[in-house]
Batch of 2 targets.
Target 1
Amino acid sequence: MTNDRRSSFNLSLSSKIMLLALLILITAFILNLFLPWWSITIPGLILGYLYKEKATASFLWGFLALFLLWGGQALYIHISNDGIMSGRIADMLGVGSPLIVVLITAVLGGFISGLATMTGSLVNQKEATA
Amino acid sequence: MTKPIASLIALVVLIFALNTKFGSIPPLGKFFDPDAGFWANAETTLPENEILHIQGLLDEVSVVFDERRVPHIFAQNEHDLFMAQGYITAQQRLFQMEIQTYDAAGRLSELIGENPGVQDRDLTTRRWGMPWAAEKKLDVVMQDSASSIIVNAYAKGVNAYIESLSPDEYPVEYKVLDAAPEAWTPLKTSLLHMNMLRTLAGGSSDDRTSRTRAYFGQEYIEKFFNTDPQSLEPIIPNDRVWDFESVERPNAPDSDFIPKTAERVQFWEPNAGVGSNNWAVDGSKTASGYPILAGDPHLSLSLPSIWMEMQLNAPGYNTYGVTFQGIPGILIGFNEHIAFSETNTGSDVMDWYQIEFKDASKNEYWYDGEWKPTSKRIEEIKVKGGETIIDTLVFTHHGPVVLANPNDTLNEPDYHAMRWIGHEAGNSLKTFIGLNKAKNYDDYVAALEDYVAPAQNFVFASNEGDIAIWVNGKFPNKWDYQGQSVSDGTDPAYDWQGWIPHKHNPHIKNPTSGFVSSANQESVGDAYPYYLSDEFAPYERGKRINDMLREMENITPQDMMDMQMDNMSLHAESIVPEMLDWVIRDSLNVKEIEFITAMMDWNFEMNADLQQPGFFYYWFREFYRSIFRDEYGAAGVRLRYPDRDRLIEVLKSEPDFALIDNIETEEVETIQHLATSAYKYAYDVMATYFGNRGEDWNWGYVMNNDIDHVGQIPGMGANDVYSGGSSEAINATRFGYGPSWRMVVELGPEVKGWGVYPGGISGNPGSPNYDAFIDNWRLGQHFELNFYREKPETALYEITLTGN
């Protein structure tokens, strides 16, 4: 019973944070269309600040958002290009497989966004304690 | 430090780091960004019809891309034609165009950053006077109003494309290098011409010949370098009568100058990968009754391909062929009346003069009994992220004083000035534009008249039934063997003293044999009244072409395409039977003996699927080297090696030739010993690198045929392109060198062309079209070329360029 209750509590918490991830994903997508790559940190900084989650959670959800966004975009291009470009970049970087190039893209975007979201949340926590 | 500040600093540092290029690692954030990084260059849909507005066009231009994406430009005037050519070339090949001009200008460091090898190349390029001569040549081009309209329009077109680009649309190579394209200028076209000169006419054996003479004596020079092999068939056949009064030849100096050995100065060797074939047969030998012309230039292969197919159509023009990115016009191709193709001429047009300076200031040098002033030019080599390098060029009347090894300090005791045809002002653009528009033999000859260099053997065929070949370029009128070794820079007798008149350049029109051909072999026989050079390609390819053409009747275009894929090695045929005789069977193990049988069964074809060609390659190479290794090694300086064809002739007539004995051993080696130890060596190499005898021994693998990216970016080339061929075979494919374009043209009321090169139209490594023709190329499957008389109804896609 207790287990059940905790999981339902977690679920509602997760859906709130999932909305955070979704919002980051969508705004980052739009900003990235017009602005340089580092614009993907803006949604994380602002939304991380507003959502005031714990540092670790903020990092993870910020990470997830751009992992999915950049990873998804890269995977889509990889497939519709028959892996020609990703294959060449894999050779250039000596990483073996084009899918690793997709993965690097996802992790890179995720890490930057995660760090930004965490920074946003930390700034707000600092203000709250001050 | 508090957590939020630490986190913020970490974020800022990370953004900065991922936006910065470290060494050869691109700025990773920028680079992996799916919207603007390399992913944005991945082609995911076919290009579509477009209407583009380009300022400066006079009229509308249609560019039709056929099913292989070959652009066909239909313009209404000459200006628009070349402006559109510039635009479309940049659209397909911008990075290639730019990196080649950076290279020719000695500016690679500006693009790539600090790298000792790149800096050396830039310094050498400057000291060769490449940018200096490019400026000189441009002056001449600009004085000709027709040429200046063309190069200016071309530059405008390239710039219109560059200006249309946002950074996410830059070719992927710029993203790898974290660089941006710069504006195109007519000077860049001139620089590209210099690049061709360096590749095709930029090499010299003068220093090595001097040392070889000092070491082995004049007799050795006569034997190996001044004697032609018996089997040689010069480009202009020996029965050609030279029915003109030759101009006066300069006198050779009385005493032969002995240059200092100058061991530390090493001049650039002639480019070994360069060669080409071309030939034309007249109507008496063809099925159609009209001439057929074939050409295949051999160069270092690269991706994007060196060439791009294109059709240029405007009033006065309808020409199809291949372009060299950055140079207006078609360089090898055909129109409705004529076809033309070039091979390189080995004329000696780079000579080195030993210079005596008065003092360390190098302000004066000794010449003709007095001190003459030098002139100087400052070269600034900018280095991306580093300090600018300043270099002072010193010029004598011969040319720039070059230290071929840029690491040598200017304290080098011996100085050498370079006299090079590459520095001679001229307008080669005019020649190619003339050929693009030529209608008959007279137009072709008129186009050739102004041509300076690099000297080429221009083969020609026309609808009027004419075939011809001109060994064409501006040739210094030399005394015999002038400039074979290092010259005396103080004595006017060693200077270039005038030129061979253009009408005396070797040529032949409509010979009774019914064909003309060239394969970089010696241009002329002994009867020709002028001296050209002592250094040409071995006879084998040229003789093979002539042997085949002599036999052939009722020739079809397909016969010519098949002939371009011929892998027969006259070189192997000329020595393998003897080498097999020489091998001492008792010294071989079982496996080695077994392979003797295979070698005896070999038909001397350098086919991809055979094991013998690869074995022969290593066997002969080691056999050749073992003859010279001991003596040449003992000399301690770099000497000149004989050509293989002349050496083989000597070995056959003198099997006890003195150099065969290894001077490092007590016993006396015979040719049998060398052939045997080289045989065992070759078997060892094959077994070590390609395993047990089997499919991996196939020549197609052994030749290690890698087609590298033009900027040497790993992953952007094509590795191990399985092919037959050899430098001595008509199909000269090997080790990443070979036929960079194969073209066959059948003249007639309706001119038809076929062609293929190892690449694609698109220069984008993320496009399937980038390397789309490689398989067709390696298998000899030429495409029938879409040569349109007027703009076609259908196309893969079409770009309309409008001026307003």
Target 2
Amino acid sequence: MKIAVASGKGGTGKTTVAVCLALSSGQPVTFVDCDVEEPNSHIFLRPEIEGSRKFHLPVPGIDESRCNYCGKCRDICRFNAVTVFGKTIMTFPDMCHSCGGCFLVCEQDAVREERRNIGVIEWGKAGEIDFFQGKLRIGEAMSSPLIKEVKKQTLFEEKKGLTILDAPPGTSCPVIKTVRDTDFVILVTEPTPFGLHDLKLAASTISTLGIPTGVIINKSGVGDLGVKNWCKDQGLPLLMEIPFSREAASAYAKGVPIVEVEHGLKEKFNELIEEISR
Amino acid sequence: MKIAISSTGTTMESNVDPRFGRASYFVIVDPENSQIVDVIDNRASQEAAHGAGINAATMVAQSGAEVVLTGRVGPKAFAILQAAGIKVVSEVSGTIQEALEAFRSGSAEFSHGPDCHAHTSSPSPRTGWQAESGQGKNRGCGCQGKGKGRGR
């Protein structure tokens, strides 16, 4: 069972929920932090990192002794990572999305592979939990390939037991890359107009992928009924409400998972996993 | 000699487009007789997500222009123009006619670096454009993104 935890809005409690799920299951758990720009689930889970590897993208480098300045590499590139004018060829590796098109179209064999580091993948153990995370290089714009690679590191395809993926906020490629090929998506929101607005965006993103989806309202008790009413209208299952409480906020502020302080919450999450798995 | 001027339209009365990469047009003018010899349609750049400056600079380089008159140029476009041996005058405004007259009066000063930073950046030792960064003219590029120019 692979469950992704996502949201449109940042700060709704994705990591809080993902960590609760991981700590509440009776099954062997793999935890994958796919929020590679701000991976912070390790603060709750405190894993012991056992290994790491740098991840590079293939980008074009030009052998000018072979280049005949035909411009085919320039013309195939949608991202303007290569340009040719007169007898000059220039590459812009940070524009490159590593599609490999320029390598293929070059008849002179003048485009050779160079590598551009975009981040690092780390893995280890948090108690019994198999822990994985990606860390995007500061200033790097392309997180999706790193997310894909982190998932690959977990042997995602064959993975047994329960896999929890902590997604980045938003509604674009990094989120899609995280939730793709999962069995269920939990959208975490808060009961405010802000939460509702971004929940609508996230739900419409996920609906394009056809993955079963449910909603958890975090900090329930504050705000308004907008989220609840909307979920009802849409037929989107409301899986759980996590009440707003001083104890939870205080635990969070110290980096302690809220299932450790909120009585009965672990059982609720365990039931939820059972229910989703059914 | 040919001069490329970023423009909002296609005539001598059109205004200079303050953006280089996402300018609507480039009007190619012969300064000897103030005639428009060519127009590059760059409107597609406004739909492009990335690399508009690279594309625009490539087209200008291919046009055979020796000088560019425009508002602001980013680092990648500037690197290309520099590699093509094209001189850049930035912070140009008014109509194409006015810009051309100002240039012909000899009051124009050529830029030594880009006017704003790239919207994305990464170390890339082979390309050289980042050697230009840090030489911006203490102004943003209006992108509301990451591209704030640093003073020099």
